[in-house]
């Protein structure tokens, strides 16, 4: 560590974990000031108050507070603009949309960029997953919405950045268990610690965790098992450089209950359709990845960061497609077998200086991501001795190799124009390339090989004014884009062979204005925004087992986001959030039926959350929360809608601390008043099975015990 005295200079703290850092506003300095400059950028994350964007930061302790610690959906409801729902289907991941982007995804996560310790959980074509996030070792989660999220590349809605804990002294060993309704349980263990204080050469820090989760599932045919491991090892090489090693592995084996029609949901929300049982719909996922991050302070004003990562993901999914449909020559079969290898590198340089007496920070970098995918399809049945056995992998029906890569140079700058006025601006030039090679060519199933490449300049800028040290207002603008996934490019609506090269990326222009005010020990935030999108990607038609996609013309999203996080009377905490989102088509997206003016399906117009907790450092604690979600259109015509709902939850526990031991014992009740509601929606489901049921009143209890080796 170096102690440097600077006159009328400022220090820009750039977060180490983000692939493209969003610079915090520079700190005004009227007189001589002594700054402490460390070898590595801060790992404390972005500052909610000072960042000129709609940003929410949720600590890992909040994520784990009296919670199952299985999914991101458990304790992120307090984030405005984020519609995050547990589908009660571990074969299809969570359903996440931000400001309405991502709501149309029938599986996985679309429209967002997700990072875990700087490693993208989003593939180059824009498809994301959250299954590898270990809640037990999360340090904090940053949710960035609005124009500046465009600087992260192929996404329109926003960015979710997860940072895991850095080990520190004293060494601590922790074990925990959780047990809930429907045969659900989780066991976990975590070890963390450090040698030295992290400022001397040879100092090491580590965090290693593992967990196993099992559930029978609320619905029939919805059991799941999940094994998850996560490790982080940091080493200080010398006074000015650090090295961090990252490792993550997850295995999931889950049944897929599918959706229900509105009538089926009203009759019995726990049931599944007959095909689901006959074809034994299920999914298996194995993913392992590793990363290496090198950070070096090149000089008093310059920092270098290099992130390298690689991983492999294998997926096998059995679908409930009738055998008669699979026999069509063009059909890819009812079993999907994917093997993906992905890797990437993100290198950036940050320079801090003054220009005409104005403090300036400049960050430039290059982000490269690539993925090779081997995709095969098989019939979901076999015929043996004249007997058809369903739910078994049969004949090959699809065989292709897909290559995807992105190459994005970016530049970002922060100017402290006056003591109160600051300017942040940046631009990213994003290139996304697809190359598909079809090895399954038969009569009636032609060669679907092809390639496509997309380019887009993605600028963003924000102007912030500090009314006083605890009150900031800002205005920002930016452009984002969202390319088709390789699956959306695969087929053409005219049944011709080759990729659907007429499908263009969706381009979004966003304007945002907001304010943040520190109120005692709390923060009040508000944001107004409008996003106009051209060429929104929507489903076109389904024929012969192939779903094709098209561009829908124009859409508009207008909204208001309000958030409050207030601590009072020492141990009491109030969290509130409200989102008003009017998302509509501005052109026809329904073929012969006009959708102009219709609501975009999958998006709630109103969301509200309120949580009150009594949270002392030790002893008895308790909390309550209420969530409201207005009705959601299930398809483009807006003729099918989910009912609106309000659900409540209670939790309570007791925390003992005795010398080096800590024991936390808790229990909770979710859906306290046993409401009957739809948990999530499968948008435009071709069979009309739009609804995924949420569980009724359910109970759980758990404990965590830890020992600190002082």
Mean pLDDT rating: 89
Describe the largest sheet: 22 strands, antiparallel, barrel
> What Rg, in angstroms, do the CA atoms define?
25 Å
Q: What count of helical segments does DSSP give?
A: 5
Q: What form results from the Cα inertia axes?
A: globular
Tell me the β content.
Answer: over 45%
Fraction of residues in helices?
under 10%
Low-confidence regions: 1-42
Number of strands: 37
Q: CA-to-CA gap between the ends?
A: 25 Å
**Which structural category do the helix and sheet elements fall into?**
mainly beta
Describe the structure.
- The strands form seven sheets. The chain has a 22-stranded antiparallel barrel.
- It is globular and about 75 Å long.
- It is mainly beta and 710 residues long.
- A hairpin with an 8-residue loop joins strand 11 (184-195) and strand 12.
- Mean pLDDT is 89; it is low at 1-42.
Question: Concise description?
Answer:
By secondary structure, this protein is mainly beta. The protein is 3% helix and 56% strand.
List the main descriptive attributes of the protein structure presented here.
single chain, 710 residues, mainly beta, 22-stranded antiparallel barrel, 37 strands, globular, disordered N terminus
What's the arrangement of secondary structure elements?
Elements: E1 2-7, E2 32-37, E3 54-59, H1 60-64, E4 82-85, E5 95-98, E6 112-116, E7 119-120, E8 138-145, E9 158-164, E10 171-180, E11 184-195, E12 204-215, E13 224-238, E14 241-255, H2 262-267, H3 274-278, E15 282-299, E16 302-318, H4 323-326, E17 335-355, E18 358-378, E19 381-384, E20 387-390, E21 396-416, E22 421-438, E23 450-468, E24 471-482, H5 486-489, E25 506-519, E26 521-534, E27 537-543, E28 546-551, E29 554-568, E30 572-585, E31 606-614, E32 619-629, E33 645-658, E34 661-670, E35 678-681, E36 691-693, E37 698-709
Parallel strand pairs: 6-9
Antiparallel strand pairs: 1-2, 3-8, 4-5, 6-7, 8-9, 10-11, 10-37, 11-12, 12-13, 13-14, 14-15, 15-16, 16-17, 17-18, 18-21, 19-20, 21-22, 22-23, 23-24, 24-25, 25-26, 26-29, 27-28, 29-30, 30-31, 31-32, 32-33, 33-34, 34-37, 35-36
């Amino acid at each position: 560590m170096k102690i440097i005295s600077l006159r009328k200079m400022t220090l820009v703290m750039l977060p180490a974990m983000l692939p493209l850092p969003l610079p915090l506003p520079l700190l005004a300095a009227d007189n001589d000031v002594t700054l402490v400059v460390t070898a590595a950028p801060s790992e404390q994350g972005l500052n909610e108050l000072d960042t000129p964007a709609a940003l929410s930061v949720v600590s890992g302790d909040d994520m784990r507070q009296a919670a199952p610690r299985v999914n991101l959906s458990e304790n992120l409801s307090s984030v405005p603009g984020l519609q995050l729902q547990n589908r009660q289907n571990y074969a299809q991941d969570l359903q996440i949309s931000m400001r309405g982007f991502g709501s149309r995804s029938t599986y996985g996560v679309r429209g967002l960029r997700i990072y875990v310790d700087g490693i993208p959980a989003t593939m180059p074509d824009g498809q994301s997953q959250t299954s590898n996030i270990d809640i037990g070792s999360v340090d904090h989660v940053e949710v960035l919405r609005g124009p500046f999220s465009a600087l992260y590349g192929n996404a329109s809605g926003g960015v979710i950045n997860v940072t895991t804990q850095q080990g520190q002294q004293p060494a601590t060993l922790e074990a925990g268990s959780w047990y809930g309704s429907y045969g659900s349980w989780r066991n976990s263990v975590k070890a963390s610690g450090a040698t030295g204080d992290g400022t001397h050469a040879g100092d090491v820090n580590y965090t290693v965790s593992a967990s196993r989760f099992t559930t029978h599932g609320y619905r029939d045919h919805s059991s799941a098992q999940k094994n998850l491991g996560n490790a982080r090892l940091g080493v200080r090489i010398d006074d000015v450089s650090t090295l961090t090693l990252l490792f993550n592995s997850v295995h999931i084996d889950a049944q897929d209950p599918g959706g229900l029609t509105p009538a089926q949901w009203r009759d019995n929300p726990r049931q599944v359709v007959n095909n689901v049982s006959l074809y034994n719909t299920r999914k298996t996922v194995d993913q392992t990845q590793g990363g290496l991050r090198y950070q070096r302070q090149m000089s008093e004003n310059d920092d270098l960061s290099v992130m390298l990562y690689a991983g492999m993901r294998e997926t096998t999914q059995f679908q409930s497609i009738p055998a008669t449909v699979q026999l069509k020559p063009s059909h890819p079969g009812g079993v999907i077998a994917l093997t993906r290898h992905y890797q990437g590198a993100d290198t950036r340089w940050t320079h801090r200086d003054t220009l005409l007496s104005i403090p300036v920070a400049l960050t430039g970098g290059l982000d490269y991501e690539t993925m090779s995918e081997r995709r095969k399809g098989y019939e979901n049945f076999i015929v043996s001795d004249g007997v058809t056995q369903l739910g078994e992998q049969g004949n090959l029906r699809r065989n292709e190799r897909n290559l995807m890569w992105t190459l994005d140079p970016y530049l970002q700058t922060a100017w402290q124009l006056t003591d109160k006025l600051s300017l942040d601006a940046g631009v990213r030039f994003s290139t996304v390339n697809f190359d598909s090679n079809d090895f399954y060519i038969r009569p009636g199933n032609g060669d679907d090989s092809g390639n496509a490449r997309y380019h887009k300049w993605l600028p963003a800028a924000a102007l912030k004014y500090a009314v006083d040290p605890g009150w900031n207002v800002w205005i920002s603008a930016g452009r984002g884009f969202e390319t088709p996934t390789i699956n959306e490019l695969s087929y053409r609506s005219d049944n011709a062979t080759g990729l659907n090269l007429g499908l263009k990326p969706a381009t979004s222009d966003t304007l945002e204005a907001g304010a943040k005010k520190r109120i005692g020990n709390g923060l009040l935030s508000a944001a107004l925004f409008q996003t106009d999108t051209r060429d929104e990607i929507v489903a076109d038609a389904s024929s012969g087992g192939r779903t094709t996609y098209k561009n829908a013309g124009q859409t508009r999203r207008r909204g208001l986001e309000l958030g409050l996080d207030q601590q009072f009377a020492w141990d009491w905490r109030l969290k509130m959030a409200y989102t008003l989102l009017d998302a509509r088509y501005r052109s026809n997206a329904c073929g012969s039926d006009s959708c102009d003016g219709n609501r975009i399906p999958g998006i709630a117009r109103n969301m509200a959350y309120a949580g009150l907790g009594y949270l002392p450092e030790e002893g008895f604690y308790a909390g309550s929360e209420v969530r409201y979600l207005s009705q959601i259109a299930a398809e483009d015509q807006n003729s099918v809608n989910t009912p609106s709902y309000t659900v409540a939850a209670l939790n309570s526990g007791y925390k003992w601390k005795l010398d080096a031991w800590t024991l936390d014992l808790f229990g909770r009740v979710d859906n306290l008043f046993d409401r009957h509601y739809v948990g999530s929606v499968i948008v435009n489901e071709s069979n009309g099975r739009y609804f995924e049921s949420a569980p009724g009143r359910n109970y759980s209890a758990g404990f965590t015990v830890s020992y600190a080796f002082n």
